[in-house]
What does this fold into?
Amino acid sequence: MALRLTVFGATGGIGQELVRQGLAAGHEVTAVVRDPARLTVTGPGLEVFRADLTDPGALRPAVAGRDAVLSGLGARSRKEAGAGTATRVTVPVLRAMEAEGVRRLLVVSAAPVGPAPEGDPLLDRVVRAVIGALLKDVYTDLTAMEAELARSATDWTAVRPPKLTDGPLTGRYRTAVGTGPRSGRTISRADVAHAMLTMIGDPATLKQGVGVAY
It folds into this structure.
């Protein structure tokens, strides 16, 4: 069934994949961007919407009447994370959706935000702790973003990948609702986008964090 989708962060690695795969599946896709020149995806069914991401009122036309909103928004550096970028740009999206009565939202978070998988090997737990310390500001920001999701009126899903790669779309990965796949260390941006599009209609993922990994 063709859906009407809006993608935020459409010029990022996951965002462009969401747009590309959404169009390939026959959906109508509105790509919300700050700089249209950075969007390399084209095709029938695509609408490019330029907007100030800090103004919920300006975002309302981009989400009105949509079946789902997908977001690849987030900090591109530790400095941006320290400024709470993921939270700051996600809250206006939430307010715009609530104002328009649009409920389904899927966002990109990160594996360390969720609980560690039960039975994870010691090496994976050590690596997780080290990465968590090195990127503390990033995960603090994403944790705050997920708290905003939980307080919202949306039917949200926070998709939590581990280390991202530029590998190909395979469609072969593991998911775990509420936690992460055991020993899940990497996944391509293309497969994260595939997982997000697949989860749109999955009621088991509503108001949940979902780990995705190979």
